């Protein structure tokens, strides 16, 4: 397996295929780099170098006790980018991975390392409700996530993909048991402690200043029927904070649109990359 070791001994698993301009894919919670299969295969066929890592505590990376927060996630990506000597890369993040991309590009994206960024169904600027963020989701929602992970992670990791993640709870939805099972497989491969901690990381981290610091062109893609990361308090706000942001809204599409509608997503990603 391809592994890079962090300073604290954590081993980060990654896939690195092909040649050409590097595209780095950052997965959502509680998944792994495998969630990008449809994008990895498409862009590999288009002549790009495609890279996807498993965030610490997730997938095939170390089941970490500590460091399960955005600053360390971004530092891990920086170490991976240095290890692979990535230059002129395009970083693409979904959901929690969009937060990871935002912090990484803001803090480490200079010196020609990053050419562009893409945020898909992403958590920035901040998810949790507060006086400064009245449109956010109440803390009780995320406390519910934590309680469900501790009480019966295996069942929770069936309920999420079978319901709101892919919009399979909507009338007329074309439900795929394989997609549900694959979500469960990825989630259960990771460590419960790291995934528990990550709920705080994706819900309570404030990315406002990160978004304002990003200098590279950034595409913000979001389904307007996203039941996990509601669009009004995420993409619509992020696009306004970015210096070079472009907003693409997908009517009726769910949070997991990269899996449910890969042809649509891949075509728009390719157009942005080539623009």
General description of the model:
The protein is an alpha/beta fold and 275 residues long. Strands 1-2-4-3-5-6-7-8 form an eight-stranded mixed beta sheet, with helices on both faces. It has ten helices and eight strands. Helix 2 crosses helix 3 (96-108), helix 4 crosses helix 5 and helix 4 (139-165) crosses helix 6 (192-204). The mean pLDDT is 98.
SSE inventory with pairings:
Layout: E1 3-5, E2 11-17, E3 22-26, H1 37-45, E4 49-53, H2 70-83, E5 89-94, H3 96-108, E6 114-120, H4 139-165, H5 177-189, H6 192-204, H7 208-213, E7 218-223, H8 235-241, E8 245-250, H9 257-260, H10 262-274
Parallel strand pairs: 3-4, 3-5, 5-6, 6-7, 7-8
Antiparallel strand pairs: 1-2, 2-4
Helix pairs in contact: 2-3, 4-5, 4-6
Task: Provide a short characterization of the protein structure.
It contains 10 helices and 8 strands. The chain is an alpha/beta fold. Helix 3 links the parallel strand 5 and strand 6.
């Amino acid at each position: 397996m391809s592994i890079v070791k962090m300073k604290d001994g954590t081993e980060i698993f990654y896939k690195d295929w092909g040649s050409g301009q590097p595209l780095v894919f950052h997965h959502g919670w509680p998944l792994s780099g495998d969630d990008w299969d449809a994008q990895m295969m498409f862009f590999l066929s288009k002549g790009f170098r495609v890279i996807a890592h498993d965030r610490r505590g997730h997938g095939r990376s170390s089941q970490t006790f500590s460091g399960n927060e955005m600053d360390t996630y971004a530092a891990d990506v920086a170490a991976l980018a240095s290890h692979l000597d990535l230059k002129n890369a395009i970083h693409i993040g979904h959901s929690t991975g969009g937060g990871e991309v935002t912090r990484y590009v803001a803090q480490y994206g200079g010196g020609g390392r990053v050419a562009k960024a893409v945020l898909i169904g992403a958590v920035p600027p901040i998810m949790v409700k507060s006086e400064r963020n009245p449109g956010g989701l109440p803390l009780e929602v995320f406390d519910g996530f934590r309680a469900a992970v501790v009480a019966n992670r295996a069942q929770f990791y069936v309920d999420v993909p079978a319901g709101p993640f892919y919009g399979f709870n909507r009338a007329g939805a074309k439900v795929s048991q394989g997609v549900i099972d694959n979500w469960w497989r990825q989630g259960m491969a990771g460590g419960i402690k790291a995934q528990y901690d990550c709920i705080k990381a994706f819900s309570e981290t404030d990315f406002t200043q990160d978004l304002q610091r990003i200098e590279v062109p950034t595409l913000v893609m979001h389904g307007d029927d996203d039941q996990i990361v509601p669009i009004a308090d995420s993409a619509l706000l992020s696009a306004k904070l970015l210096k070079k942001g472009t907003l693409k809204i997908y009517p009726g599409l769910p949070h997991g649109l990269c899996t449910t509608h890969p042809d649509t997503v891949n075509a728009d990603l390719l157009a942005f990359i080539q623009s």
